[in-house]
Design brief:
Layout lengths: L5 E10 L2 E11 L3 E7 L5 H8 L7 E6 L2 E2 L5 H6 L2 E4 L11 H9 L6 H10 L1 H5 L10 H13 L5 E5 L7 H16 L3 E5 L3 H7 L2 E6 L2 E7 H6 L1 H8 L8
Parallel strand pairs: 3-8, 3-9, 6-7, 7-8
Antiparallel strand pairs: 1-2, 1-4, 4-5, 9-10
Length: about 240
């Protein structure tokens, strides 16, 4: 991971009196899916939120396509081509599915061809197009959250635990959607606790512990090395279906 679309160099983040990130060094290659793994509390979500400008880095540098973004506001980072799918989904419950998507499209009505592509993975969104987002199930809200992020082409997608609480059928559709997004040339940085999903969709991997990156490499190599899995994560991928 020597060159990439996104680089973090010595990034530290404080939240109030808490020091969460302790010098994160990470390169996300251009194109494909990079997995960000680690135990609970390792700093994965804080890393995504710091990249997105929701929390400001207290030290270090973040570059997107070679340009520094660590001092930019969240709207400026979004306009630079970064989309964020938070763990809590963050949909507008009082708006319809359509209105949520239109807001995400920003400059114009959603492209019909791209909409149909999204509906192919998440047909429930088409079915409930004019329904309030607050009336959707948890899985359907997750579909909507991801659809908002991909309704326009983005340079970088930051996605935080998208399969959490989803049924196996929806997880399968989500995996295929992520693979198709990656094939289109997009770059994805994905936090995921389901290690089978990580193995299936990831090409690259970085593992965090205590606010630092402690391992970088190929996802396939990590998936094949049970001893390394145990050392880095305290478990093996075989134990998490």
């Amino acid at each position: 991971m020597s060159t990439g679309l996104l680089t973090l160099s010595g990034v530290q983040t404080h939240i109030g009196r808490y020091h969460i990130l302790h010098g994160v060094d990470l390169t996300v290659p251009r194109g494909g899916v990079t997995m960000l793994l680690g135990r609970n509390g390792a700093g994965k979500t804080t890393t995504l939120r710091t990249i997105m400008g929701l929390w400001q880095a207290s030290h270090g540098a973040i570059h997107l396509d070679g340009a520094p973004i660590e001092k930019l506001s969240t709207p400026e980072i979004a306009r630079a081509g970064v989309a964020y799918v938070p763990e809590n989904m963050g949909v507008f419950s009082d708006l319809t599915v359509k209105e949520n998507i239109v807001l995400a499209a920003r400059d114009a009505e959603p492209d019909e061809k791209r909409l149909e592509w999204i509906f192919g993975f998440f047909p429930a969104l088409k079915k409930f197009w004019l329904s309030r987002a607050g009336s959707l199930s948890g899985g359907q809200k997750q579909m909507l959250s991801i659809a908002r992020a991909i309704i326009e082409e983005r340079k970088l997608l930051l996605i935080d635990e998208p399969t959490k609480g989803l049924s196996p059928a929806i997880v399968g559709a989500l995996i295929e959607c992520l693979k198709d997004i990656a094939r289109s040339g997009a770059t994805i940085l994905l936090v995921e606790q389901n290690f089978r999903v990580a193995q299936d969709v990831g090409q690259h991997v970085a593992v965090m512990d205590s606010g630092r990156i402690i391992h970088k490499g190929d996802m396939a190599a990590l998936a094949a090395d049970k001893t390394l899995q145990q050392s880095l994560l305290g478990l093996s991928l075989d134990s998490h279906q």
